[in-house]
Specification:
Oligomer: single chain
Structural class: alpha/beta
Number of helices: 14
Number of strands: 19
Helix content: 25-40%
Largest sheet: 9 strands, mixed
Length: 468
Amino acid sequence: MSSSRTVIRGGLVITASDELHADVLIEDGRVAALAATGTPAAESFTDGHVIDASGKYVVPGGVDAHTHMELPFGGTFASDTFETGTRAAAWGGTTTVVDFAVQSKGAALREGLDTWHAKAEGNCAIDYGFHMIVSDVHEETLKEMDLLIGEGVTSFKQFMAYPGVFYSDDGQILRAMQRSADNGGLIMMHAENGIAIDVLVEQALARGETAPRYHGEVRKALLEAEATHRAIRLAQVAGAPLYVVHVSATEAVAELARARDEGLPVFGETCPQYLFLSTDDLAEPGFEGAKYVCSTPLRPKEHQAALWRGLRTDDLQVVSTDHCPFCFTGQKELGRGDFSKIPNGLPGVENRMDLLHQAVVDGHIGRRRWIEIACAAPARMFGLYPKKGTIAPGADADIVIYDPHAEQVMSADTHHMNVDYSAYEGRRVTGRVETVLSRGEPVITDRQYTGRPGHGVYTPRSTCQYLT
């Protein structure tokens, strides 16, 4: 256990709003004070365990608001458990994840939430919360939404994709949105026209187009844009806020930008895979492209510029991972000969903070925007701020000592996610996590894992803080 008092000395503290050479005093798991390095106030921080952060960044722990540990999908399960997945998150500088509990068709929301609590409790290295996937909207479900908000589950995900699995029709979506307009919840939308996509899938397979690259070709950007537009207008009719997950296409960003220009409470998230990978990866020879099958799909490279621009202009507010790993051997291979049977999802919970720091190095975003989109904005969006997402007196001491100059090569040989490949294999990036504190306790210490399952606790959330 850490001593109850820790001092981080000499680093550059970076939050979404400020950069300051400051010492940070931590007492009993929370930030007690900050003071400019070398000042009498900073010198008065004594009697604690000292971490020397000279030459390093001191940043808030990342908040990954979109993960799927142990998710049942396509006849198999995501390969990371809450234990392995949260440990890998910590290695990557993320100290809070918000995962998705799943309502099964015909079952209560409560049943799904209880199941996910049971999976996570006592197993997590870092703190966690839950969103609720709503896949069966009826009168009882709507009543349960109100109850869940009281327990700190304040966001509900619906799918315009995956008919027969998670799909909701427009009427069900409208009803859930009307409910969230009343109870303060936030509807998260997987915006793709799944009914139309299924037709294109069937036609492609009939033509003998079975390789992984066709997964991207049938899930057309226009069908993401159409669904995004429809979700926005349904939310507008309901008078409800909307958060569109894993935005990947130029045309979908344009729909969000238009809605925000109209003053609508509409928000968007993208993911590292859409910023750094493309259909070139899906088209890798043989079956290798299966490693990159996720939904929404990877797009041609030219879409990346619109996503970066959206992140700079705040038309996109959050970068999450949609971490949903499936091993290439034995899991992705379920789709050999039929791309529609490849489990959809990529590993990435460990890579997000580093890839976004690389974006700073490359000049796509500034340092404070890095912290905004990876820490502060997701914390605000999902009712965790300022407990999470910043370094300020009273905040949880979820803090990362980050070496901005260290170089690393991303690889399945060295990552800690429970999956047999890396989506970023061989990619050289600048910047690396050195030490990670979760509520003041060291989880990673000088590149060694010092955490434990069960340190991470369930963290109830308030409602979206962009709406108050």
